[in-house]
Write a structure and sequence with these properties.
The protein is of the alpha/beta class and 279 residues long. It has a single domain (8-266), classed as Ribokinase (UDP-N-acetylmuramoyl-L-alanine:D-glutamate ligase). 35% of the residues lie in helices and 20% in strands. The two termini are 20 Å apart.
Length: 279
């Protein structure tokens, strides 16, 4: 029997809960696992929700968030980190200050700021703290068009708007920005990736009708983090992450889960856990 030891590439998700399994930390864990990485997690909030909406949100004490992070980082240090919705400035400070005590790992930040209904989910002062503290540690930021409109302080309705807004957001201090075009009124949906050198890359996919897109933003940011953990560069990770989400939506488009907006099919092509030599 061989005595050789291996390790799994790990991804840490810092996010909220979704008991219906389609979004939040559950979607993150499914995505990370489906792509062959090892998922660890730290819970930031406890929303009570299903496919039809959120009924209540219970906060997690900041000390508990800090202790969760320290416990994981001390033991299973990740190749990449995904950060989801952070709803208070104090939570931002807790996460950033805790991560600062450890070696840097690439961070993918999904800035969840606007509900599907169009309602803003966080206060302006929290957005300011996010820009000042989270943006500088983010390798990739993944706003949708509504979130881009808040960050760039301009309407974002067209592809031309996206070009202007994405350039503005990248200048706020993050390394790169993937501006998602899922809300475009077009037959082909185009997302724009503004890389660290200032170049812009277009990614387009055919639009198809389905209500099963619950958790697509969580899934995308986790997929990008997973591909980074698997050794892809940022552009490759962004490209492959979008392809994964497109296929996950496609393969789940004809399935009914719950009475509202259903989840993606995260396991349309599950990969075995990747094993690397233990160094």
């Amino acid at each position: 029997m061989s005595t050789k030891k291996y390790r799994y590439p790990s991804v840490l998700t810092i996010a909220g809960f979704d008991g219906s399994g389609g979004a939040g930390i559950q979607a993150d864990i499914k995505t990370i696992s489906a792509l062959g990485c090892y998922a660890t997690s730290a819970l930031t909030a406890l929303p009570v929700q299903n496919t039809q909406g959120v009924r209540a949100i219970y906060p997690i004490p900041y000390q508990a968030v800090q202790e969760q992070l320290e416990t994981i980082l001390d033991d299973i240090f990740p190749e990449a980190i995904k950060i989801g919705m952070v709803h208070t400035g104090e939570l931002v400070d807790t996460i950033v200050d805790t991560l600062a005590s450890y070696p840097r790992a690439p961070v993918v930040f999904d800035p969840v700021m606007v509900a599907t209904s169009g309602d803003k989910l966080i206060e302006d002062k929290t957005i300011t703290t996010i820009v000042e503290r989270l943006f500088p540690i983010a390798a990739v930021l993944t706003p949708n068009m509504d979130e881009a409109a808040i960050l760039a302080e301009m309407p974002v309705h067209t592809l031309d708007d996206m070009y202007i807004a994405g350039a503005k957001i990248r200048k706020l201090g993050c390394r790169s920005v993937l501006l998602k075009g899922g809300h475009l009124d077009a037959q082909r949906l185009t997302s724009l990736y503004f890389d660290a050198q200032g170049a812009v890359h277009e990614f387009s996919f055919d639009k198809f009708e389905t209500n099963n897109t619950h958790g697509s933003g969580c899934t995308l940011s986790s997929a990008i983090a997973s591909y980074i953990a698997l050794g892809k560069n940022l552009l490759e990770a962004v490209h492959k992450g979008q392809e994964y989400v497109h296929q996950a939506i496609l393969h789940g488009s004809d399935v009914q889960v719950g009475k509202g907006n259903g989840p993606l099919n995260h396991f349309f092509n599950p990969q075995q856990l990747t094993k690397y030599d233990l160094v």
